[in-house]
Amino acid sequence: VEEPLCRFRYPVVVVVCHDEIGNLLHFGNGIVHRDSASCHAERFQVVCSIPCNCHLRKRDAKLAREHLEPLCLADAFRRALKRGRLRIGQAENAAAGTGCTVFICEGGMRAGLDVRGGGPASRESELLKPLAAAQYIHAIVLAGGSAFGLGAANGVMEYLEARDIGFDVGVTKVPLVVQSDLFDLTVGECSVRPDAAMGYEAARRAMEDPNYQDGNYGAGCGATVGKICGMDTCMKTGIGSFAIELGGLQIGAVVAVNALGDIYDWKTGQKIAGLLAPDRKSFRSTEEELARRITKIENRFANNTTLGVVLTNASFGKAQLCKIAGMAQDGFARSIRPVHTTADGDSIYAVSLGDIEADQDLVGALGAEVMSEAIKRAVYAAESAYGFPAAGDL
Questions:
Q1: Contact 166/176 with Cβ under 8 angstroms?
Q2: Which of 41, 57, 121, 276 lies 20 to 30 angstroms, CA to CA, from 158?
């Protein structure tokens, strides 16, 4: 750990060494006074506790590696993305409960798209089909506001054109910007949606002061889940990220979790967010609620939609990236039940940012796992808001 504990907003995974009576002695490679550690206890998760007079056991070492490597690799991946000229910026109106997240690569990035939900709100999706002429895009926008929020891309285009970023058409450069939106109109102020001004601000932050963070930010500002019975028994979620590295191959994911259904830990099968019981202290099953009503429901709160982006430093073309995005949808299916409904617009972009040679199927399979982990981060990083409890409140 290279920074003071107070600099960390989210849980820090540590290995703790203790003496015979349990006083904390070591925090990572440094010494931590017991009182100092206690005052920050809510900020870290102890994955293994080791007596100071004992050697690190194989079981403890394995447990520590399992928890520590993904955290470190996520940081390494973010640094790699910065070197690769990918920038991520976010802007939101917290009072209104909506926002947007913008991914920018000024030199252009290869991308593919897979849409499984029955109610998507999107812009320029045709650019990502293998038969479309454009081989690169310059930005991806994830936003709230449903179809109303698609205007956010106008602000991103304005910002990029002013900086001479885009496809050269002779008289100007046209930024190629794709966008997908989720439905958050029932969360805060319905009349306030992501617009050109918000898109411009997110693009500015991406290029000048990248500010991505997990939680109630950007496209995750108004995200909720478990809405089959209405908003009174749903839960607050947000946006989350995760990354791994394997022999130089890097794969990361960012996802705004806003599903009709429930969210599960893909490894344990435990439900971690979703439809609440009437007491709002325990869970009900969305699938069981669906089974209780076999008659057709015309409007399940319009749209919901989970939106994700898979990022890799491996080199792929559009057709391959569309397939990788499709395989990453397995991450949605492992974590969200039900998923890909007519009331969701579930969409995943896959982006190639480097020149590493890697197997397409491997990247797709790992992309699904990374996406599932990012979904967990989106749940656990969220804070209660707008009267909706988050996982930390249960």
A1: yes
A2: 121
* CA within 13 Å, CB half, 377: 26
pLDDT digits (tens, 9 = 90+) for 55-87: 444 444 444 444 444 444 445 555 555 555 799
Residue of 270, 268, 201, 261 lying closest to 235 (CA atoms):
261
Measured from the Cβ of residue 366, the count of other Cβ atoms closer than 10 Å reads 23
Phi–psi pair at 38, nearest 5 degrees: -65, -40
DSSP structure class, residue 140: E
Give the CA count within 13 Å in the CB-facing half-sphere of 64. 14
Distance CA 85, CA 87 (A): 6
| 8-state DSSP, 57 | P
Residues 12, 196: Cα–Cα separation, whole Å: 36
- Return phi, psi of residue 314, to 5°: -80, 155
Which pLDDT value is given to residue 345?
A: 86
This prediction has a pTM of 0.80
Question: Would you mind telling me the total number of residues written for the chain in this entry?
Answer: 394
Q: How far apart are CA 266 and CA 121, in angstroms?
A: 27
Alpha-carbon span 149 to 153, nearest angstrom: 9
pLDDT in tens, 287-299: 888 888 776 666 5
Edge-to-edge strand list for the sheet holding 262-264: 271-273, 262-264, 336-337
Tell me the angle at which helices 152-162 and 196-208 cross, rounded to the nearest 10 degrees: 50
**Mean pLDDT of the 318-335 span:** 97
Strands 86-93 and 98-115: antiparallel
**Phi, psi at 218, each rounded to 5°:** 55, -135
Spatial CB neighbours of 61, under 8 Å, sequence gap ≥ 6: none
Return d(Cα 253, Cα 177) in angstroms, integer: 19
Give the tokens for residue 179. Answer: 């966008």
What amino acid occupies position 72? Answer: C
